[in-house]
Amino acid sequence: MLNDEKNTYNKNDTGFSFDIVKDRLAFIAILIICGYIVILGRLVNVTLRYNQSDIEQETKIQPQEDKEKKLRADIIDKNGNIIATSLPTVNVYANTSYIYKRNETELKKLAKDIGVALNINDKEVLEKLKKRADFIYLKRNIVPKEQYDANKLGLPWIDFEESERRVYPGKNLFSHIVGAVDVDNNGIAGIEKEFDYYLKNEKKPLKLSLDVALQDTVRRALKKGIREFKAKAGNAILMDVINGEIISMVSLPDFDPNDYNNIKKNELFNRNTLGVYEAGSIFKIFNTAMYLNQGKSIKKIYDTQTPIKIGKFTIREYIRAKKDYDVSEILIKSSNIGSARMALEIGGDKKIHEKFGFFGTNHHRTS
Predict the structure, then answer these.
(1) Which of 345, 340, 343 is nearest to 308 (CA)?
(2) With 0-12 CB in 10 A as exposed, 13-18 as middle and 19+ as buried, what is 268?
(3) pLDDT-derived band at 48, boundaries 50, 70, 90
């Protein structure tokens, strides 16, 4: 009778036993607790083995470029003045494959909104949106306001990337020397190209022998001379005669490397490095110096109309002179005949030429 009452108490009308349920729940709870203990033990073990040296080692392995983007190194003159530098900027790009189902009207509306935000032509934007590419630049080197306005459009397929912009504070001042970079900041001309690897991988500025102040002075003087004599172009090099360093080099016309895409072809030509000149025209300067060094008068007039025959060679003018020139005019007009007559008169005085090292290495260095 007691057994029957107990069985009746532990079972409900459907024959379900609460004792069995409690036993199973207790078993499951024990399994969960054991699992937590195992996991906790493993965590403690890993923590103890993962000491400080491991953390430091892993920190070293992580590339620093991910944390801080390295900008292209500066180019400076001999006194530390900046010739070229890089500024951090932002490019905006789009994944137009997300909008390939948009109709023409929707695309025009998007192009107009993007054009207003980025201050660019909406027709140009429309052409880019129609390309259906995974990655396409909408605009490079945008200003903070443009980034804010573009971000405010709320278009998930438009994003931004960190970049840099090469800036030349002197504009035209060193254009032919420093050169320029392309849209991806790769050197494509001048110093930028020659030292491209260094400028990409080093933080220390690249120091040149040039002098900003002297470069500006020479350029101003050369521009004045071109205007005065109505010349098509001009070039000048200023060298330190003690160590041979180039401290100024100017070629006009020049260009602004900040706007490399709008440069005219004749502006790219560097007359110092690419121009070909007759050595005779250069020696006329030294012939005149040698002539004046002997105390001769600069006002003396020479026959510059009659050609001179020396051996089997005849010295004549490229453009025949209409009158006889004095010494100053011979130098200014670059007269072949006049310079030859001056040299013949003073004879074989090589002292001036030797001082400039024209006849070998055993020359007297002037200071």
Answers:
(1) 340
(2) middle
(3) low
